[in-house]
TrEMBL record:
It is found in: Membrane. This is CLRN1 protein. One of its GO terms (biological process) is sensory perception of sound. PANTHER family: CLARIN, CLARIN-1.
């Protein structure tokens, strides 16, 4: 492939990586990871609410990695309550998983920036070391993509398996019990999915630029070396 086309491909990959870093940083600071509705089960049972009357007992909840807001409905109108994970909810949530999600988000930002820098370096400079060449580009893209996948897996398990929304909804509730009525992932969660796909796409762009995958290349060189040794 001509050098000019390679520069264009590397520039595109670098811009995409940089955009992913900014998108992930913006996603961390929002409360748009999960949106849902919560049912005041105790209030609905007290009045034996029918399907039409249940609307008066269904509140809303949304939260991110650091803070969120819930609106409880127990037949007397909505009452908003804002909360933060640190330190308010630290005792009731799976703290190790939650901190791991934040940690991998940070790692994703760092390696997305590193990948963007090396893509630009390869576009306008001359690779002179292995980690500056195609092996490094594959490496940074693979690490960033893996971090994005781990973020989605860990956060999904925290929400679905550990019932994070119900734990938040019942925080500081003595006599009332809340159940999750509906729940879906919001924009910030899908930003992480898009970033993971972008880094996977970057790996394909590297291949499109004419670079072989380093693992298959090293195997061929090892086989050639072994044959040369046998000849001598």
């Amino acid at each position: 492939m001509p050098a000019q086309q390679k520069k264009i491909i590397f520039c595109i990959a670098g811009v995409l990586s940089f955009a992913c870093a900014l998108g992930t940083a913006a996603a961390i600071g929002t409360q748009l990871w999960v949106k849902g509705t919560i049912l005041c089960k105790t209030g609905a049972l007290l009045v034996n609410a029918t399907s039409q009357e249940l609307e008066k007992f269904i509140g809303e909840i949304q939260y991110g990695l650091f803070y969120g807001e819930r609106v409880r409905q127990c037949g007397l109108g909505g009452r908003p309550f804002q909360f933060s994970f640190f330190p308010d909810l630290l005792k009731i949530i799976p703290a190790s998983i939650h901190v791991s999600v934040i940690l991998f988000c940070t790692v994703l930002i760092v390696f997305a920036l590193v990948a963007a820098g090396f893509f630009m370096f390869n576009a306008f400079g001359s690779p002179y070391e292995t980690l500056h060449g195609p092996v490094g580009l594959y490496l940074w893209s693979f690490i960033a993509c893996s971090c994005g996948c781990l973020i989605m897996i860990l956060f999904s398990s925290e929400v679905k398996i550990h019932h994070l929304s119900e734990k938040i909804a019942n925080f500081k509730e003595g006599s009332f019990i809340f159940k999750t009525h509906s729940e879906q992932f919001a924009n910030s969660f899908w930003i992480i999915l898009v970033c993971s796909l972008v880094h996977f796409l970057n790996a394909l762009l590297i291949r499109l630029a004419g670079f072989e995958f380093p693992f298959s290349k090293s195997k061929d060189s090892g086989t050639t070396t072994g044959a040369a040794d046998l000849m001598y």
